[in-house]
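Long-time lurker. I teach an intro course on protein structure, and each term I like to show students one example going from raw sequence to a predicted 3D structure in C-alpha cell notation. This year I'd like something fresh instead of my usual example. Would anyone be willing to generate the C-alpha cells for the chain below so I can use it in lecture? Attribution to the forum is fine with me.
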Amino acid sequence: MRTDKKKQTSQRNIVEQKVSRFSKLSEPVPPSGWVKAIRGSLGITIRQLADRMGVGHGSISQLEKREPKKKVTLEILERAAAAMDCKLVYAIVPREAGATLEDIIERRALETASKILKAVGHTMSLEAQGTTEKELQKEIERIARDLKESGDPRIWGDIKNKPKGVK
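-- Reply from a regular --
Happy to contribute to a lecture. Here you go:
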C-alpha cells in the first residue's frame, strides 16, 4: 500500500520541527555515561539511586558499566533519570549538522537518480548516444525530482556503502 504523499509531507513537516530542536545538540556522551555523570553531579550514591529505583546496588553498577557500551534499554535509562528527578530525552536526528529530513531525501534521490542514469548511460554510450556533462546533470536532477515527488521507494533501495550500524 502506497503512502499518501500529502499525508507524508505533512508528517515530515511536523517531525522536522521536532527534530530541528534536537539536531542542534551535538554534545557527546560522557565517557562514563550519562547516568554516572548525572548521579555524581547530583551527589547521589549508587545505593541511594538503587533505593530510589527499587533495585539492588549491583544493578546500578551494571547499568553504569553497560551504558557507555550502549547495552542498556531506554526503559532503564528513563527509570534512572526519573529516580534522579530528571527526564530522558531521546531523538533520532540527521547525522550531518544542520541537515534536515528534506536534505536527506534530496541526497538519496540524487544518488538514486545517478545510479539509474549510470545504467542507462552505459547503454547509450554503447549506442554512441553520449550526452554532455551539463545535460547529464540536468537529467539527474529531473529524475531525482520525479523520485521525490512520487515517493518512489527506490530512494531507499539497495545501498552499496551502508553507513556504520546499518544492516
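Some talking points for your students: The chain has seven helices and no strands. The mean pLDDT is 85.
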